[in-house]
Structure formats: structure tokens, C-alpha cells
Predict the 3D structure of the following.
Amino acid sequence: MTKVCVAGHGFMGGVHAGIYHGLGNADLAAVVDFQDGVREQAAAKYGCATHATIDAVLDDDSLELVDICLPTPIHREFVVKCLEAGKNVLCEKPLSLSMDDAEAILEAAEKAPGKFMVAHVIRFWPEYVVTKQLLDSGDLGAPLAANAARFVPAPDWSWDDWLLDPERSGGAVIDNHIHDLDYLNWIFGKPETIYARGLWSEQGGLDHVFTTLEYPDGKVAIAESGFFVPAGMGLVMTLKLQCEEGCVMLSNIADPTLTVYRPNREPEHPDVPKDDGYVAEIKYFLDCVANDKTPAILTPEDARLALATSRAALDSAKAKSEERL
Ligand SMILES: NC(=O)c1ccc[n+]([C@@H]2O[C@H](COP(=O)([O-])OP(=O)(O)OC[C@H]3O[C@@H](n4cnc5c(N)ncnc54)[C@H](O)[C@@H]3O)[C@@H](O)[C@H]2O)c1
């Protein structure tokens, strides 16, 4: 049974804490949050210890895993402290806001004895996982072109509205678009050129963005992300992936959610596992910790590349330029 602390019990911390609390192989032993009311709620819900700062957690050797669900600008401070204290660390995406912070985290992770993974949940989201498995099986031939889109209503729940502040969240590109940019990196590898254009908010955030990514072998992808669709729309995510031997269509609002089209065959609907991506990523990281395995589905370098790709998209849209990685 792995003893876990969730640091930050807002929207994402609430999701993660609930998952650990419900799993048989994890013991949600502590929650860290600097808001008194949030700590009271967590203590009542899970019967766990709560702390206003991370210090007590760093000193408690029985706590093996710290799950960082704090605002992105403070990921570096908390992740590095936890890694240096010998903890296994799962950190919500994005790895950080700046590339400097990313490098500092990777350096700490390299030196630390604990496991480290960034929670890029799309690499664990059932439909995206099945699509990757289909590609890896060779059954569809090589991927040639993709169109990935993601729309979410304004993230209006966050502490101090930090998610609505592009200076602190990075806006739609660093907070939301990064999901698809990371997935496209997983499929196509590192992009060579990145060309992004979008709509800017009054606060200076890129609220809606289109990014074209070109790869050294001539393959191409387009990703689109919108941060401010009407609340009633909820989360919408889609992927169209053209391969040599067929085409995959994924949409979380279609039924079925995943369809594979091949020449001269009826459309197929592959089986999709029932666990959602958050449960799957947490189960995976717990397994890595319990069985001393280095997380391979998402390495720290993958998380750094996801951030670098997203930062390049933001730079491209700002400067109206084409960026190279
Ligand atoms: N994977 C996903 O689908 C997904 C979705 C939403 C958010 N996220 C990521 O999760 C992370 C957290 O986002 P959120 O939406 O949960 O934010 P949030 O504002 O809802 O929650 C953050 C919590 O951290 C606490 N906090 C802030 N600063 C603190 C400090 N110095 N010490 C202790 N507690 C502190 C706040 O009180 C709050 O409860 C971000 O990195 C975000 O990008 C990921």
C-alpha cells in the first residue's frame, strides 16, 4: 500500500485525491493546501492528515508519493523540494511555465532516487491509448497527417483565478493545447517547424489557437484549442489521423467514440477500456513506484518537449513567425 500526499486540493487535486482514496493499493494519508476551508473539506472527506505547507510531508518518511496539483508557476518549487526529500513525484501538466523551470526540474529528477512523471493524461486516455496501440501494431501503416482539437469552457474555478491569468497559466496554449501537442509528439516525434496563429484576449492570452506542425519526414499535423467555448459545451476533444492503411476518427462526443476506416472494409469500432485517463495514469504511476519501474509512457524529456513545443507555438503566434525546435 503506497502512502500518498496530494499537494493542492483544488479542481485537479480533488480528482486525484478521490482516485487514491478509492484505490485498494493507495493510502491517501495527507493533503496539503494553504486554504483553511479546503483542508477542512479534505479532512472530512478522506479522514486524512492535512497541512498548510509541504514541510511536514518532506519530513515524514512514511509518505512515499507526492502528487503535485498546484498552480503551474509553483511546480518547480514543490517538485524540486519533494524530489530532493526522496519522494516519488507525480506532477500535473504542464511540467512548468518556463523552460528554465523545466530544466531545473529535470536536473532534480535526474539526481533524485524517486520516480518522476508529469501527468499528461491524454497518453492514458482510453481512445488515445487504443489509437497509439493500433499505430504501434503496424496495422494502419505509418501515420501521415493529423488534426487534433480540444475545446474547454473558461476555467473559472481556480484559486485566485490564476488559470484565467495568461501570465500565470500560459493561457490556452500552455494549459490546454499542450495536451494535443504532446500527443502529436508521441505519434510523429519532434516537430521541425511550428506555425501558430490565434485570437488574443483583452488580458493578453491566446484564447483560441491553430498550430501547424511539420516533421522532418514531410508529415504534417494541425492542432486547434479553444479556452472559452460556452460552458454548456463541456470538454470536446477530437482527433483525425490519416495513416498509410486507414484513418482513425476519435471524438469524445460521438457514439461510439472511436472509429477506424480502412479501404474496402466496413468501419470498425475497437474496444475501448472503461477506466478514465486520470485513473489509468495514477494506477500506472503507483505501479511504477510499487515495482521500482521507471515510468516509460511519459518521460521527463517528453514533458520538456511538450512544453518546448507549446512555448514555440506561443512565440510563433506572438511574433507572427514560424518557429523551429
Ligand atoms: N490534466 C488535466 O486535465 C488538468 C485539468 C485542470 C488542471 N490541470 C493542472 O493541474 C494543476 C492545478 O490546477 P487546478 O485547476 O487544480 O487549480 P486550482 O486553483 O483549482 O487548485 C490549486 C490548489 O492549490 C492551492 N494552492 C495554491 N498555492 C498554494 C501554495 N503555495 N501552497 C499550498 N496550496 C496552494 C489552492 O488553494 C488550490 O486549492 C495545474 O498545473 C493545471 O494546469 C490539469
